[in-house]
Amino acid sequence: MTDRQAAILTTIIEQYAEVAAPVGSVLLAKIFNVSSATIRNEMAELERLNYIAQPHTSAGRIPTDKGYRFYVNSINEAGADSSRPRNTHAIATRVAHSGEPSQAIKSAVDSLVQLTHNLGLATIGNQLYVAGYSNLFGQPDFIDPAQSREVARLLDNLEPWLREAAPNEALNVYIGQENPIGRSAGVSLIISRYRSPYSDHSYIGILGPTRQSYRSVMSLVEQTGRTLEAVL
Predict the structure, then answer these.
(1) Are 110 and 128 a contacting pair, CB within 8 Å?
(2) Which end of the chain offers a freer environment for a tag, N or C, measured as fewer CB atoms within 10 Å?
(3) pLDDT tens per residue, the chain (232 residues)?
(4) Which burial class, exposed, middle or buried, applies to 130 when counting CB atoms under 10 A from its CB (0-12, 13-18, 19+)?
């Protein structure tokens, strides 16, 4: 992939996250100050490489799971936590004044729900605390009932899967079909592992559509995990 193709892919992903509509060549041509024909050629190559796809009802393009993975890997290589995201101080203050550990974890999840507009989740001992269902199922990405059922199936099996898989990175990102459950649900799971009074492998994170503002959400989830570990 050329540098320009990578830049176009990044722009498609970030524009799509913002407007929830396929991104067309006219907009991209304005952003990159080149002709629409040049953009169409670059998009054709990105599509051939399976980084973007064209919905049947649109002339624009949307990212594929492979495209999102390239983007997320680029963020990780650049350092997703190079600067503290805004609102982490507010989360830390809220968590610190929450009392017992279980309530502190719930407060952190509730904060993630409010800030990311996704579904928030965390393990508390042998239980999974989940909040923000209306956020998740209110997304335009989940209009299809079959897809919503796949999301529900993932949630039903998430706690035992986390125990079995025990993701061992400070930040773990599972995109679309990378999820072992609900592969066709079109969701991304972004979770942070941290130490708590309940376990050295406690998790907190969000579940949302693959159409996600990964850069900010990844940083926020990781910083929230660090905050919980420090407070608890």
Answers:
(1) no
(2) N
(3) 999 999 999 999 999 999 989 999 999 999 999 999 999 999 999 999 999 999 877 779 999 999 999 999 999 888 744 455 666 777 888 888 788 999 999 999 999 999 999 999 999 988 999 999 998 888 888 888 888 888 988 999 998 988 888 888 889 999 999 988 888 889 999 999 999 999 988 999 999 999 999 999 999 999 999 999 988 8
(4) middle
